[in-house]
Amino acid sequence: MYTLVRGVPRDYAEAATWFSKGADQGHAEAQTNLGVAYARGEGVPQGNVRAYMWFSPPKTSENLKIEAKDMTPAQIAEAQKLAREWKAKKN
Fold first, then answer.
1. Angle CA 7–37–10, to nearest 5
2. Which of 6, 37, 83, 84 would staple 56 via disulfide (CB 3.0–4.6 Å)?
3. Cα–Cα distance between 12 and 1 in angstroms, integer?
4. Rounded CA separation 47/52 (Å)
């Protein structure tokens, strides 16, 4: 809603807040949207590691490939570690 401008002013930070809440509850679409927000730096600091991390839980392989092409192996390893830690915390 906050990114699509349906009845409210566009507010990427507010959208990222709501995506984060949904992502933390395990909603795949919210996780993907949060990954996109990090990839673009919309409402959150731009960061490939966080983008990759949020693309990992729902296994959106196309998004993972897109992010990985601009990342070092160390950044990918860090993103995978963050995703594993997040999953362990949620389980």
1. 20
2. 83
3. 10
4. 9
Helix%, strand%, coil% for the chain, nearest 5: 65, 0, 35
CB 10, CB 3: distance < 8 Å: yes
What is the mean pLDDT for each group of 10 consecutive residues in the chain (91 residues)? 61 92 89 92 94 77 76 90 85 65
* C-alpha torsion sign, points 14, 16, 22, 24: negative
Tokens of 89: 């915390």
> What tokens were used for 82?
């963050």
Helix 61-68 crosses helix 48-55 at what angle (to 10 degrees)?
160
Rounded Cα gap, residues 43 and 33, in angstroms: 11
pTM of the model: 0.69
